[in-house]
Amino acid sequence: MRRYGKHTDEDDIRTRPGRRGTRPRTHIRPKHEDAAEGMVLTVDRGRLTCLVDGRTVVAMKARELGRKAAVVGDRVALVGDLSGQKDTLARIVRIEERGSVLRRTADDDDPYERVVVANADQLAIVTALADPEPRPRLIDRCLVAAYDGGLEPLLVMTKSDLAPPDKLLELYGALDIPHVVTSRDELENGDAADRVREHLDGKITAFVGHSGVGKTTLVNALVPEDRRRLTGHVNVVTGRGRHTTTSALALPLTGAGGWVVDTPGIRSFGLAHIDPSRVIHAFPDLEPGTEGCPRACSHDEPDCALDAWVEEGHADPARLYSLRRLLATRERKEGD
Length: 336
Prior knowledge:
Blueprint (H helix, E strand, L loop, with lengths): L35 E9 L2 E6 L2 E7 L13 E6 L9 E6 L5 E5 L7 E6 L3 E7 L7 H14 L2 E7 L7 H7 L6 E3 L2 H6 L1 H7 L6 E5 L6 H8 L26 E4 L6 E4 L43 H6 L5 H11 L9
Parallel strand pairs: 3-5, 8-9, 8-11, 9-10, 11-13
Antiparallel strand pairs: 1-2, 1-4, 2-3, 4-5, 6-7, 12-13
Helix pairs in contact: 4-5
């Protein structure tokens, strides 16, 4: 039986490498200073389609990014094969700082927030005036998410041939939100797209709305070159629409220099991640009046200084009512 001492000098002994290999580990990550800049257009099962120098490139996230995920609208740095040819794959090595973030949770008790779109300038909230009925609480939640994430809201009301927009316009009039009212005929002949396009020029606009309101039909009219989706229908029993968009997708707006981000139809819009104290920033006429508020004021309590601020004539009472309605939206269900 052959035995070896502790300090053998035999050169025929085979050593098994460790599980992690023999390369020394380092915490120094490459800078990738020569990486190309791109924009994420869509994400599908770990593969990200990005726009790089006018061509689409399929990429995957580099391991060094850890759990940090890229979403539609993100500005990213890529290395590897950037030709965009079939069966090629690039690598995203850096996600740039975001200018704005639209986030939501599954419900108000869900601690896990989902980033829907990054770096959008505006949020177009699409709602039908009938078939299905409008859901003001869902609109309120989308507005809170927009204000919190740094996006300007745009209210798009469809199917005005079935019901007038007066009630919704009265409800949101104090918020001074830009709005567009369209009918089904206008969606079909392109007039609706032309009027909505006036608000999109040079901006990245994310479109949200629950299923069946005509959101995807409107997006297809704005970007007719995109044919990947089929228009859904409203279920006559439940009053809810069938999902026609399964993943967020950024599409270039023809002739306007902007981008349209189509998002899946939403059933709910949780706000568990929202800090109510940030919503006041969307009310510059009311914000100075909070200087006299007690610490951690909810702006809906007896000692709130905003009541006196409004009574003194510094702001419209309807604006204070709208603020408090939005702040209270986390305590109410979307369908209330």
